[in-house]
Automatic annotation (TrEMBL):
It is an enzyme of class 5 (isomerase). SUPFAM superfamilies: Ribose/Galactose isomerase RpiB/AlsB. This is Ribose 5-phosphate isomerase B. The lineage of its organism: Bacteria, Pseudomonadati, Thermodesulfobacteriota, Desulfuromonadia, Geobacterales. The keyword DNA repair does not apply. It holds the Pfam family LacAB_rpiB. PANTHER family: DNA DAMAGE-REPAIR_TOLERATION PROTEIN DRT102, RIBOSE-5-PHOSPHATE ISOMERASE B. Its EC number is 5.3.1.6. InterPro entries: RpiB, RpiB_LacA_LacB, RpiB_LacA_LacB_sf. One of its GO terms (molecular function) is ribose-5-phosphate isomerase activity. The gene is rpiB. Gene3D superfamilies: Sugar-phosphate isomerase, RpiB/LacA/LacB (3.40.1400.10). Belongs to the LacAB/RpiB family.
Length: 148
């Protein structure tokens, strides 16, 4: 399950991404926003991040105007590795090296076709594990320390 969320600044791109996921036959749930009214990006960032953090969704995609606010809120959640990507290389590395479980995009900075390519790259790339797993383990460890 992939959960999607955006504010008004990411609405159009989030809708395009939902159509793309549906066309691929991937189970997804759109947690809003559902219209162009001005809303607060944390509300939707929290809804998506909570689902991924708790494990009821495997992955999430968040879109706001720049992607900055959504990445700040998402990375507050335990176990969330949210990656703000601006091109296909970054989206690829977000999975290959960081095993990002949330991809964050900026609706006001990306062309739709490029964003589709980025989402496809993130979905289709395998996590390389090995030395990268060791690095993620260090992040998980400090997260436990800071929480405890
Ligand atoms: C909303 O105007 C804008 O601040 C938001 O979409 C996002 O870019 C925040 O980081």
């Amino acid at each position: 399950m992939i959960v999607l969320g955006s504010d008004h600044g990411g609405l159009d791109l989030k809708n395009e991404i939902r159509k793309m996921l549906e066309a691929r036959g991937l189970p997804c749930e759109d947690l809003g926003t559902h219209n162009g009214d001005s809303v607060d990006y944390p509300d939707f960032g929290i809804a998506v991040s909570r689902r991924v953090s708790e494990g009821s969704a495997e992955k999430g995609i968040l879109v706001c105007g720049t992607g900055i606010g959504m990445s700040i809120v998402a990375n507050k959640f335990p176990g969330i590795r949210a990656a703000l990507a601006t091109d296909v290389f970054m989206a690829t590395m977000a999975k290959e090296h960081n095993n990002a479980n949330i991809l964050v995009l900026g609706g006001r900075v990306l062309e739709t076709e490029k964003a589709r390519e980025m989402v496809a790259a993130w979905l289709d790339t395998e996590f390389a594990a090995g030395r990268h797993q060791k690095r993620l383990d260090k992040i998980a460890e400090v997260e436990r320390e800071l929480k405890g």
